[in-house]
Amino acid sequence: MLFLVPNRAKGTTLKNLRVCFPDLGETEITRLAKASLSNTASTAMEMGKSWLLPLDKTFSLITETEGLEEFHAAVAENQGIILLAPHLSNWEIFGMYACQGIDTTFMYQPPKLPALDRLLQRTRSRGGIRLAPTDRKGVALLLKALQAGELVGVLPDQVPNEEGGLFADFFGEQALTMTLVSKLVARSNARVFCGFTKRLPKGKGFRLIIREADQQIYSDDLAISVQGLNHTVEQCVLMAVEQYQWEYKRFRRRPDGAKFY
């Protein structure tokens, strides 16, 4: 229905895919767009399971894992971990599962509706996860957690404000990209990992995939580090292109100020 009926999500998805994959023909772009819209709808309808089911039932949706042991070994070093969770498949289930039993602070954007904010705080904090708002106070909480050798979680592909971002290549297109992760790395000994839950076919649950970030992210050069952040997200997206949230206006801020969407 999202593909058949004219709507903003469809238009944004098609434009993003055409720009990011210019070598693909229109038939393949259409296939990916339909699959992306379907997966985004699936994520929306899964939020009830993500937020409301008992944790053991939510965790049972993860039926396969890849890289989890290496991730836990890094956490055990107590040097601090930054976990990147891009808008790929169901990031809610990914964050809760990957961080179970670990002292964790996740940054989140408080919604404008107070009732929804209360729901998010109650559901996302299950299992002991602490939440830090996207402001200076929240950044201070993240840095304090890292310096204590704990884990912090960040959604790396949100468009920041101009003061908090640099333009960097994302699938061949310039995208305003957050500098927060790079600055946290520079002020701590933290290692950076990135992961997602890949939705399996025919309702068979999810495969959790987690890997260390591109080594560029540890560069002292801020521009190189930010580029490493985007490379890291790209590597995850390429493992499940149709499950990325292409409906998001990732390129709405342009280097020349021009309108993209």
Give me a quick take on this structure.
With 261 residues, this protein is α/β, with parallel strands linked by helices.
Task: Summarize the SSE layout with pairings.
Blueprint: H1 8-20, H2 26-52, H3 55-59, E1 62-66, H4 68-75, E2 81-84, H5 91-98, E3 104-108, H6 114-124, E4 130-133, H7 136-147, E5 151-154, E6 165-170, E7 173-178, H8 180-186, E8 191-199, E9 206-212, H9 222-237
Parallel strand pairs: 1-9, 2-5, 2-8, 3-4, 3-5
Antiparallel strand pairs: 6-7, 8-9
Helix pairs in contact: 1-2
Task: Give a verbal description of the structure.
Strand 3, helix 6 and strand 4 (130-133) form a beta-alpha-beta unit. This protein has a domain at 62-240. The longest helix has 27 residues, at 26-52. The protein has helices at residues 8-20, 26-52, 55-59, 68-75, 91-98, 114-124, 136-147, 180-186, 222-237; strands at 62-66, 81-84, 104-108, 130-133, 151-154, 165-170, 173-178, 191-199, 206-212. It is 41% helix and 19% strand. It is α/β, with parallel strands linked by helices. The chain has a 7-stranded mixed sheet with strand order 1-9-8-2-5-3-4, sandwiched between helices. It has 9 helices and 9 strands. The chain is globular and about 50 Å long.
